[in-house]
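Following up on my earlier thread - several people asked me to post the actual chain instead of describing it. Fair enough. Here it is, all 138 residues.
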Amino acid sequence: KGIAFGGRSGIGKTTLSRLCRDAGATLLNDDRCALYFRDGVPWVCPTPWHGEEPEINNQHAPLAAMLHLDQGPSNQLTPLDEVSALSSLLATGIAPFYRKDGLENVLDSMEQVLAHVPSYRFSFAPTPAAAELLQGQV
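Reply from S.P.:
Thanks for posting it. Predicted structure:
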């Protein structure tokens, strides 16, 4: 299963990616992944554009959850409704805002993804316990 992290620059995508990798997960990309549908199921895969972590694994996985990241003193996983999740995705995802049809296609795709997989706000402290919580609950 795949878990996609979203968040602004500096929020901790690379940190959380490393923590999850150290806990045994396969890291696809620490910064930019792509989502697509195969047989009606959303999948996640890496892109060539990484953040601080140069490791990229060209593997694809069915998307199990979307995490919208926040930093915090402790680890807390809070379910998001579709409107909040879409708002967060639009704020941090890549979309062709310069083309009306491109933006409409991206919005349709985002809505389809959010209808298929749960989204969470994940406030976390940069410790191994963050990855352990995800392994147990997502």
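The beta strands are 2-6, 33-38, 41-46, 61-71, 76-80, 119-124. That should answer part of your original question.
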